[in-house]
Amino acid sequence: MPFSNEHQTVDAFQISVTPFTKVGLYHDFYSNAVHHFEIAEAHSELAVQANMSIATHAKLMLAEEARPAAMSRVKEALRGGRTYDFILESRFVDVSPETWHLAVDATQGEEDMWQCALRLMRFVHAFVKYQPSSTSVHTHMRQVLAQRTGVCQDYAHVMLGLCRTLKIPALYVSGDLDTETASATHAWVEVYIPGAGWQALDPTHNCIPGDTYVKIGVGRDYADVPPVSGTYKGTTERTMNVNVQIQRME
């Protein structure tokens, strides 16, 4: 279930599970809505379907030319917005000296936090080639940097690592994206800028996300916000099919 905030409003949401079972709800440490259930009896198929109506609003985002906070204010960024988790290494994100060198080279001479984040976004977009099926959801950013190919969550993980080595708080965003050609799950990044708060950046498309983006969950990396996770007992011969359909409404 997506967030309701100043950028989007969830007007309606319904989730259904087949085989039928009771579905509970709680909010995790990062305020993500988590629906949970158990199915103990044998079954040959599990279907989880979510239907929702969401209104997206014009975002008051920083302009690309803005210079709101000097890099000397990075310590100030760690004092607000529960940001400390988002400067650390995580399951798929690396903050090694090698990653730091890449970040320093990409931002050389820049003194503003927002402008540094924009440079890192552009660097990742140019450095990594989009190639479907070249990675999995369990691929670490070190492998992505080595092979220089990946998909949206890989672009996000690489940018997270680069930002965090410079102590710019950066979190992973999981959501949906509607384009002129397709509807799909997507991943992007938010960085924390003192005085401006969390600001979204999409290294896959090299842009500032707009009203075609729907934010569903946030975390340190993909491991914190997989669409479906849990414990399974049964045959090893199984497949998962995922389908996202977005319809724009006037």
If you had to describe this structure to a student in words, what would you say it looks like?
With 250 residues, the chain is of the alpha+beta class. It folds into 2 domains: 8-56, no CATH class; 71-224, C8orf32 fold (Roll), CATH 3.10.620.30. Helix content is 20%, strand content 26%. The protein is built from 5 helices and 10 strands, in the order E-E-E-E-H-H-H-E-H-E-H-E-E-E-E. The strands form 4 sheets. The protein has a 4-stranded antiparallel sheet with strand order 9-8-7-10, with helices on one face. Strands 1-4 form a two-stranded antiparallel sheet. The longest helix is centred in the middle third of the chain and has 15 residues, at 113-127. The mean pLDDT is 94.
What is this structure's SSE topology?
Layout: E1 8-18, E2 24-27, E3 33-36, E4 47-56, H1 74-77, H2 97-106, H3 113-127, E5 129-130, H4 141-147, E6 149-150, H5 152-165, E7 170-178, E8 183-193, E9 197-201, E10 213-219
Parallel strand pairs: 5-6
Antiparallel strand pairs: 1-4, 2-3, 7-8, 7-10, 8-9
CATH class of the largest domain: Alpha Beta
* Cα-based radius of gyration, to the nearest Å: 19 Å
Shape: globular
Number of helices: 5
What is the element string, with H for helices and E for strands? EEEEHHHEHEHEEEE
Total domains: 2
Q: Kindly name the structural category.
A: alpha+beta
And the CATH topology of the largest domain?
A: C8orf32 fold
Oligomer: single chain
